[in-house]
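Continuing from the previous page...

OK, I double-checked the sequence for Dehydrogenase against my notes and this is the correct one:
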Amino acid sequence: MSTTKIKFGLVGIGNIGKTHLKYLAEMENVTLEAVCDVDQAKADQFASTYGVKAFYNASEMLAHSGIDVVIIAVPHYDHPVIAIEAFERGIHVMCEKPIAVHVNDANRMIEAYEKAKLTYPNLQFAIMFQERTLPFYAKLKEIVGSGELGQLTRATWIHTKWFRSQSYYNSGGWRATWAGEGGGILTNQCPHTLDMYQWLFGLPAMISGHAHIGKYHDIEVEDEVTAYLEHANGMIGHLIVTTAELPGTNRLEIVGDLGKLLLENGKLLYYKYPQSMLTFTRETEQQFASWEIEPIEVAVGTSVPSGHAIVTRRLVDRLLGLQMDLIAEGPEGLGALTLANGIMLSSFEKRPVSVPLDGDAFLVHLNEKIRTSSFIKKVNQATEVAVDMSASFGSTK
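Thanks. Re-ran it with the corrected sequence; updated structure tokens here:
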């Protein structure tokens, strides 16, 4: 193993920021050099715990900490601001999801990255889509990518295992507000689900979204969403998500011409058809038919490492000169955000919208929501307590 040390700095010491600190402290070829938070007491506390420098302003940290990589784990509106300044300084970026609140900002980030690479050709931009490392999703990617399902016709994902209580929403003044977070479940909980959808199937050509604002919680953003997605190749997709359902469901069906995959409760079932479904439909003389197919349970190795540390490890290894792909290149974050913004734009305007998305149209609605907001956010001012973030990370069960 190389003795080279990659110097990291972290901006944002909230729940997810603390997750990053834990694994960075144990990772080989890495040194944590600095932490930054606008809460000076918090920055000082964690700087002392980890023996690093404390900063209270991201620009100051980027300018004076001597770091190679910055992990951005702040509220979403600040992702582009910090990332763009880091790129201009030749500092590598690992950005938490989502890449930005709206596609216009995401495009600005990507353009700044491409421009900075002219000066710093080895500059890296990664995004924290750790669910791509989960074994069942990786297996889905392998099967779908192989083409063995034939022409895909439908993907239906009911993912309601995103329960959040009112207490959760009250835990931060920025949470679940248009001005502070820029949205609800699509912006906060579901970027991984949206990324997984576009990773497996690509972006649709048309989006029809139905978002319910504060239906089950005292918030001003969406907490229940249903979307219909239409792809250029004829495949249709459905997405159903909410933060108000217990115990919740995570069920993904992928239907193709030659077979069907069903992922639910930690099992991946494969229904292999006896022949082409579409050819049978066109050519059979039967007016009614049914195939009795015994599914095959696909073996999936679940002992492989996964999660945040694996995503960062890939970036570190690339910076050490190893030839390998990142789990997710930063610009790939635009796909999930396109789905999120597209669903909300469709819901705002009560009509289907096409992809590529009209980012200006979405921004008009977002800015109007911010301008006209009269929502009074209730914030729990109680002393901060330790939060187990593992319950919020995605699972295939």
